[in-house]
Design a protein that fits this description.
By secondary structure, the protein is an alpha/beta fold. The protein has a domain at 26-157: Rossmann fold (3-Layer(aba) Sandwich). The chain has 15 helices and 8 strands. The chain has a 4-stranded parallel β-sheet, sandwiched between helices. Strands 6-5-7-8 form a 4-stranded parallel β-sheet, with helices on both faces. Helix 1 (4-16) crosses helix 2 (18-27), helix 7 runs parallel beside helix 9 (207-222) and helix 13 crosses helix 14 (329-344). The radius of gyration is 20 Å and the shape is globular. Bound molecules: iron/sulfur cluster. Iron/sulfur cluster binds next to helix 4, helix 5 and helix 14.
């Protein structure tokens, strides 16, 4: 069993260099499927005997992508396409793109024509989830994905493999939730950057491997005395709490992240696939219908604000930092609603524009310092 620091270093290294993770799986003779954010049905890939790997872009000079995407596409998609076009993602057997927003819908076509060497598998999620037809529709979408995956593996996934994969993913959700709760007792070790690395790294490991590593982390943390944190505590909301420079600024100001509602982090872990309800595909469709509080999923009454207020109360946070992905329409639409709910409940909010291509952080530093004084 590796010690706490060794495991943390392993997860941080995977976030710094996902390409090394990809190369390592390819060297083991495994096929890897790139999974665009968010809510890509990784269980189908896992059950098909391949490695699902998250594609969350990164800092790079945008050159080739400019011929395909307008300047007002979000930085994640700009960099994902740039990496596809410049060969960074070479070796992937396919990518899956969930068409959850206008930019992702455009990405399906841009990828198909711009990166023909890596097949693209689209999936459309139903937004009218109150209709029983939504379940049948989503099952048919999953079946289409499976047919395309079977052309890569040469065989169709079995029902048993899918049920096993669902168990693996539910167990992973469980262990991440346990880590998130325990992390709040060890805010000296689990700084905002470290917390983020533990969550994000899940996209670059097979989920059973990641579960094993996080279990060791938990056991290492349990051996430490509870740390009495005297700084300010916040919840993060948005798509991603990146880049690391932003998280370092929080730490500099003695601000801890004690919970999150980020698409890259807890949004994906808070809803398990139900244990009952039919076959594996139906259960996955029911999981989609149970997901909540996310800008990418239609919900009457916009309950995200209420959910954020509860997160603050449960974790002793005095404010919420909205990590607003640049040019992300779904997040922009949600912002006025949840901010109003938070302010009405007496919580402070700060919106920071997240741009992974950013190189200067002085304005952000000043705004975080002012936010810290209000908390
Ligand atoms: S939801 Fe936002 S961040 Fe995600 S792909 Fe769409 S525009 Fe980009």
């Amino acid at each position: 069993m590796a010690d706490l620091q060794t495991n943390l270093a392993l997860l941080e290294a995977a976030c710094r260099n996902p390409r090394a993770q990809l190369d390592s799986y390819l060297a083991q003779g495994k096929k890897v499927i790139g999974c665009f954010p968010a809510y890509t049905p990784e269980e189908l890939v896992y059950a098909s005997g391949m490695i699902p790997m998250g594609l969350w872009g990164g800092h790079t000079e945008l050159k080739l992508a400019k011929s395909y995407l307008p300047a007002f596409a979000c930085p994640i998609m700009q960099s994902n396409l740039e990496f596809g076009l410049n060969g960074t993602y070479k070796g992937l057997s396919a990518v899956i793109i969930p068409a959850l927003c206008d930019t992702l819908r455009c990405m399906t076509q841009n990828w198909r024509f711009g990166v023909p060497s890596i097949p693209m598998i689209p999936i459309v999620y139903p937004q009218n989830r109150k209709s029983p037809a939504s379940v049948e529709y989503l099952i048919s979408e999953y079946e289409s994905v499976l047919v395309m995956l079977s052309t890569i593996t040469g065989q169709m996934m079995s029902e048993k493999a899918l049920c096993d994969a669902i168990d693996v993913y539910n167990a992973h959700n469980d262990v991440i939730r346990e880590f998130a709760a325990l992390a709040n007792d060890h805010l000296d070790v689990i700084t905002p950057k470290v917390r983020h690395a533990v969550m994000k790294s899940a996209f670059f490991f097979s989920k059973d491997q990641h579960t094993a590593i996080v279990k060791e982390l938990i056991s290492g943390l349990k051996q430490l005395p509870v740390y009495s944190f005297t700084g300010k505590k916040v919840i993060l909301t948005g798509i991603t709490g990146e880049p690391d420079e932003l998280l370092d600024i929080l730490a500099e100001n003695e601000i801890a992240v004690v919970g999150d509602d980020l698409a890259q982090e807890m949004r994906q872990y808070r809803t398990d696939t139900p244990e009952k309800g039919g076959g594996g595909l139906r259960r996955l469709a029911l999981q989609w219908n149970s997901r909540h509080g996310c800008s990418l999923i239609h919900e009457d009454g916009k309950p995200r604000g209420t959910m954020l207020v509860s997160l603050c109360k449960e974790n002793g946070a005095s404010g919420v930092m909205n990590c607003l992905m640049k040019f992300c329409d779904p997040e922009e639409y949600d912002q006025p609603f949840f901010e109003a709910d938070l302010v009405a409940a007496g919580y402070h909010t700060l919106t920071i524009e997240v741009d992974t291509q950013n190189t200067s952080y002085e304005q952000i530093r000043t705004r975080v310092q002012a936010f810290c004084e209000m908390l």
